[in-house]
Amino acid sequence: MGLQQTFKALSDPIRREILNMLKKGPLSAGEITEHFPVTAPSISRHLSVLKQADLIRDTRNGKFIIYEINTSVLEETILWVVDLKGVDENVEKKQI
Amino acid sequence: MGLQQTFKALSDPIRREILNMLKKGPLSAGEITEHFPVTAPSISRHLSVLKQADLIRDTRNGKFIIYEINTSVLEETILWVVDLKGVDENVEKKQI
DNA sequence: TTAACAATTAACCTAATTGTTAATTATATT
DNA sequence: AATATAATTAACAATTAGGTTAATTGTTAA
How many domains does chain B divide into? Predict the structure, then answer.
């Protein structure tokens, strides 16, 4: 349930961009929607996919629903990709 | 064209498993197919997706087409995810 | 309590993905 | 040359994904 949902969530460019936006700080659904040329319901579903993957968390604040990023899930993802690459990080750094 | 195709390719469990198999060494399409409960044409398309993402390379050897992993593409992916996580690798290592 | 606003859910459509079987291509063997 | 083997491509069916508009749910403010 973990890696699969994470990769699926990351496989869409709008969702990746949303995560990049939230990296700078929490935003409401409306603020997120403004940045994209698609409708609010469409963004709402993207948010729902990210939430199911536990990449974002939401809290209601009055009329607004505020989204923030949750990076803890990415730990597993990084480990998986780095392991696939099969690289000792230190060797990697020496090469650069 | 880079990140997008990589994430799309990694978003399918069969394709991730194929990469894990190839991590241990090159394999023919047939050998890969044997490990999954789907038909050869289905695996062939998965291989084609991985190839388009440049995550694998193929060379014909007689009747066989041999696939091997290409991890260089993963560099960009790792950088992207690590940057999203916003973690200084050293801090990370100290915490563990 | 009614009106307005923020956001989600519902219903629907189209495009992309994934799987199958059948046909094709390329190579090797007899 | 004919046959067998390895793999891909073509054609089709079923499912999933992503977009839209319309309807619904929460919350605030008049």
Answer: 1
C-alpha B44/C-alpha A47 separation (Å) is 33
Best mutation target among B84, B94, B95 (most A Cβ atoms within 10 Å) is B84
Q: Which domain holds residue B48?
A: 3-70
CATH number at residue B15: 1.10.10.10
Asked if B75 reaches chain A (Cβ–Cβ under 8 Å), the answer is yes
Q: Residue A83 domain-assigned?
A: no
Beta-carbon separation of A8 and B8 below 8 A? no
Q: Is the pTM of this model over 0.70?
A: yes
- Of the listed ranges A15-24, B1-10, B31-40, the least confidently predicted one is B1-10
Mind listing the pLDDT tens digit for each residue in B9-68? Answer: 999 999 999 999 999 999 999 999 999 999 999 999 999 999 999 999 999 999 999 999
Cβ-Cβ contacts under 8 Å, A23 against chain B: 84, 86
Pairing of strands B64-69, A56-61: unpaired
